[in-house]
Amino acid sequence: MKRHAPALALDVGLVVVFCVIGRRSHDESNAILGLLGTVWPFLVGLGVGWLATIALYREKFTPELVLPTGILVWVTTVVVGMVLRAVSGQGTATSFIVVATTVLGVFLIGWRAVYRAVDSRRTRAEASTARGTSE
């Protein structure tokens, strides 16, 4: 699990950033406690997504993959987060669900897509160099 810590930390950081941006855009007060109240449902959802992906893919689990990891983590973060918000009396307006789904998708899938593109390009460059050719 140690080798997956950076990816998990990035996911956690992005969920926190999403919540900070949301709270800031609504000029909400009580910074730390308010943020904790906003972020916890999504962090629980993120944890469920990670655990589900690890359980489903065991030895094949790769946190940097868009599919299945990114998609499963994103959907679980949103769905579990919204359910927990609803049962804890927090808002789940349709517009918020749309914004949260979109932003968390861009964050949680986006970094994985960029990582894979850069890694693929690097791998191709290394293979080209090993063959003595250039791209």
From TrEMBL:
The keyword Transmembrane helix is assigned to this record: yes
Domain of life assignment: Bacteria
Membrane-spanning ranges: 7-25, 31-53, 65-87, 93-114
Pfam hit, one: DUF3054
Keywords on record: Membrane, Transmembrane, Transmembrane helix
Keyword Transmembrane: yes
Protein name listed in UniProt: DUF3054 domain-containing protein
Lineage: Bacteria, Bacillati, Actinomycetota, Actinomycetes, Mycobacteriales
